[in-house]
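Dear Dr. H.,

I hope your travels went smoothly. While you were away I took the liberty of generating a structure for the chain from your last submission, since the lab meeting agenda had it listed for discussion. I wanted you to have the full record in hand beforehand rather than looking at slides cold. The sequence, exactly as received, is reproduced here:
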Amino acid sequence: MDDEVGWLKGAMGCLSWVIAFVIIILLALKILFFEMAVIGNSAMAPTLLRDERVLINKRGSPELGQIAVCPNPEQEGYIVGRVAARGDMSLESFGNELKMNKQPVPVVPAGSTEFQNPDIERLQRVSFGTEDFGEKPHTVFFDPEGTFRVRHVDLDPGQVYLIGDNRPQRGQDSRAFGPVEEASCIGTVVMRLTAVDGLQGDLKHSAIPELL
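The corresponding predicted structure, in token form, is as follows:
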């Protein structure tokens, strides 16, 4: 019996060391590579909604099509937006299409829906479609009765232009304050950790964490 108790204590002691080691590794990864954050508005809907928790890769370089987190150049805090252009590129809009280096970015219309937008405290009627630039396509919201405006801009080396996927919603991306310095960005969003309600049908976010 004493041998069994000793073996059990030894096993529990080893397990405690393993758990402590794993915790140390996770803390080191968090400090060096990753950070968690809460989305503060719905400018990135339908990809990200206000109050959703995300994982940020602090070593991630903001490549075209990725979701970057950068300091707001006009006020305290951070902005979250999709990289629509980088240094030495030009960007503008025509109707509901972006034009990168004078070439239109294809958009495939997919339908319309109502979105419960907490930023404006009401249902927002939107059309949506699939936009294709960067590593993989993404869904964007449009105003069904209008267009969005991106004034022509030529980016300098080291700059990025951030735009929200919720195109009718202005004020939280580079359309309001211009390009930002890539070196100032703290990282890229790589995963949605938690989901909130607000979307309908196939656009509704799953409770299961999702890579972005």
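Two observations you may find useful: The longest helix spans residues 2-32. The longest strand covers residues 107-117.

With kind regards,
E. W.
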